[in-house]
Amino acid sequence: MKLNKYIYLLAVPLALSACKTGKNYVRPQTALPGQFSTSAAAASGKSIANIAYKDFFTEPALRQLIDSAVLRNFDLAFAIKNIESARLSLKQANASLFPDLNLQVNAATNRSSDNSINGMSAAMFAGSKHIEDYNVSLGLSWEADIWGKIGRQKEAARNTYLQTEAAARAVQTQVVANVAQGFFNLLMLDAQLEIAHHNVILNDSTLMVIRLQKEAGQVNSLAVQQAEAQRLSAALLVPQLEQTIAIQENALRTLAGALPSKIERKVSLTAFTVPEHLTTGIPADILAIRPDVKAAELAVMAANARVGATQANMYPSLNITASGGINAFKASNWFNIPGSLFGTVAGGLTQPIFQRRQLKTQFEIAKVEKEKSVIEFKRSVVNAVTEVTDALVKLEKLKKQRELEESRVQTLKQAIKNADMLFKNGMANYLEIITAQSNVLQSELNLMDIERQQLSAMVDLYRSLGGGWN
């Protein structure tokens, strides 16, 4: 009969533990389109986000820079520390499911007044003026998870841990994209510097011809002065570009967690091309692939679990305590088994009364925090789809811009050849040759910038789809 009673007492908390508070997580509805609304999107096949960055960026110098940044970037290192902190919190939450177990070893002696009741009792029953007490015990304390509070706390900690992992991956995707875009920008500046040097040589040649014409009396000193000013303008571009190159190199080194220094590179911007078809998959893929969207969803899941935990705080808690060991008032009898053995078991329900208003407020706050996290999740989804669409639009329109700019460069180069020939034969004035040279310079610089923008848009698409963390 006694055994049945104990079984019943143990079965009650186990049965109540099935009564979890709060609702299980359901993903918030998001109005995702069936496909990306641009002709540049290629939904067939897996998204390029599934390609590891080492396979997407295959140029050795670029890949080495990215590898270095992934290992040493400060933002990424900080995000990894957040993961470690969340992992420790998860271990703590897991441990709360188990009883607390404590070992106590005590030895005490007490000498009471001869005129006190304790003193007279000691003299009468123990035959001594002092009482000794020796105790070794194990104490156990356990809160039965009858409302699922501890389970919800563990669930929240687990989702928070996974959220920090996803957040670190999001940081890595941004770091990879920043390094790639910085590298392409550096190559564009290299190309523009080469154009600037060539333009200085061209202006030197023009200035020499105009000076010869002045000596022959064909032009006046104004023509020479304007040609000299044009040559100085072309020369000024060289140190400006060299300054920008040095700053860009330093920025890339900073991304890699290194001190400023030159970046070795043996490749030109024209060595890179944007593939004709970059598969995007469908918008729904973003929910599973893109790390910042996944982190936002995990934040909702953690907030949902905290709602259940705060709700359970308002209900009674069942605490079970037990202790046992050996106890004696003489050291000689301390380990006299079984005479020195003792044990106690107790259980109790605790129902908050005066704190109910406070606990209710915490519950309402948790619900509001969950609603806020849902809004943040929906915003991250919309932002992700927008970023992908923007990148696709850029790729589509920049392709057309490049075609037009290439045609413009060829036309202007032919124009400068014609102007130079006419100028040397006295059939064109110096202003026409200066204008033609200026137009070619600007057009060639623009073409390099458009090529850089195309590569940058490709990187944007890769990142916005969720690529770069694997």
TrEMBL record:
The keyword Iron does not apply. InterPro entries: MdtP/NodT-like, OMP_efflux. It is a lipid-anchor. GO terms for molecular function: efflux transmembrane transporter activity. It is found in: Cell membrane. One of its GO terms (cellular component) is plasma membrane. It comes from the Bacteria. Gene3D superfamilies: Outer membrane efflux proteins (OEP). Belongs to the outer membrane factor (OMF) (TC 1.B.17) family. This is NodT family efflux transporter outer membrane factor (OMF) lipoprotein. It comes from Pedobacter cryoconitis. The lineage of its organism: Bacteria, Pseudomonadati, Bacteroidota, Sphingobacteriia, Sphingobacteriales.
